[in-house]
Amino acid sequence: MNMKFFFWMGMLLTATGLVSCGGSAVQEKETPADSQMVAEHVDPSTRFPQQLVETHTLQDEAQFEANALQSAEETIALANLAIRKTTKPEVKTIAQNILQEHQQLYRDFQKLPHHGAGDTTRKFTDGRREELEKLNGTDFNRQWVEKMVTWNAAIISRYETAAGALKDKGTKELVNKALPILKIHQQQLETCRTKLQ
């Protein structure tokens, strides 16, 4: 009798241990509510990566267009300032060329589909135009050309960076069309700077 007692006690303890350690053959099914809870904690960037990438690209391109419009506005203002104040025919000629090209560039950027979607709070001006307003004669000529060499080089750098990153066909074509013209302006400005020194 004692042997039978210990035998059945051993079987009972073994069965209890299997259940308590998850050894039961019956597994709990995941409920829809459990699935929903897991889904809600999944990083969204792993669920819809393509949509997020496209949205991010759209925002970047809209911001580039907004920045390009503002830099074109400032360039137009700087060119008009030189046309009004310079005493050197070569400076006036360069300013007129820059004015004409950037007015067209401004109009072209306004036609793009993302126009108006970017942040326009950033102003592409460093305050130098206000300083140039106070100068006259030789001082103005030299300082204006110096300012434009730096300013135009910065625009070229932004356009070259954008040309390799933009996805929108229209924006990319406009940037690639503008770059050679901007580089011609840069050569003219640097040549003029050398002559004025």
UniProtKB/TrEMBL annotation:
Sorted UniProt keywords? Signal
InterPro entries the UniProt entry points to:
DUF4142 (IPR025419), Ferritin-like (IPR012347)
- Where does the signal peptide begin and end? 1-25
Which Pfam families does the record associate with it?
DUF4142 (PF13628)
Annotated DUF4142 domain ranges read 60-190
Q: Which Gene3D superfamilies match?
A: 1.20.1260.10
UniProt superkingdom: Bacteria
Q: What is this protein called?
A: DUF4142 domain-containing protein
